[in-house]
Amino acid sequence: MRKSSWNFILNATMTLCMSAIVGIGFLIKYTLISGRDRKAIYGQNVELYFLNLDRHQWGTIHLYLSFVLIGLLVLHIFLHWKVVTAVYKKIIKVQFTKRIVAFSFITICALLILMPFFIHPKLEPIEKGTGRQVTLVTYFNNPLSYFCSIN
Fold first, then answer.
1. In sequence order, which residues have a C-beta less than 8 Å from that of residue 139 and are 6 or more positions away?
2. Which residues contact 119 (CB under 8 A, 6 or more apart)?
């Protein structure tokens, strides 16, 4: 099989995988809604299923598909590495600037990937009968303090 055929198959598979990830995300967010929203819409706290899977099971599929997509993306970059480096050399001419941009890019990507493993969520007890309390107030002093506490 020719290289162009492999590239097409890889790109089509990545597109299908990404479309499934987006679709499942919408399914979880807007169809298999959370407990508080279920009670408001259906008048009682019911479990919602699609294809006999609840929102948490769909979330697991969503996660596994994202791992598959990451693997396909790494393979895609590996197969197109010559193109990536050629374009990079054409865009950035100065060697020192190339190193700074590459180092910055790799550092930002590593931080985005690894940060969730170092975050400790903020714990608040749930009072009986009130359920989860959600607020839309934003903390302006430290935006991250609204979502979590970082140690």
1. 145, 146
2. 148, 150
Neighbours of 37 (CB within 10 A): 12
Q: Which two tokens stand for residue 137?
A: 């107030």
- C-alpha 71/C-alpha 26 separation (Å) is 23
Strand partners, 129: none
CB 131 within 8 A of CB 100: no
The answer to whether the beta carbons of residues 27 and 57 sit under 8 Å apart is: no
Least trusted range by pLDDT, from 58-72, 74-88, 90-104, 133-147: 133-147
Q: Which residues of 43-79 are buried (b: 16+ CB within 10 A; e: fewer)?
A: eeeeeeeeeeeebeebbeebeebbeebeebeeebeee
**φ, ψ of residue 126 in degrees (nearest 5):** -100, 125
β partners of residue 110: none
pLDDT digits (tens, 9 = 90+) for 24-57: 999 999 999 988 788 888 888 888 999 999 999 9
Give CA–CA dist 50/28, Å, rounded: 10
Q: How far apart are CA 41 and CA 59, in angstroms?
A: 22
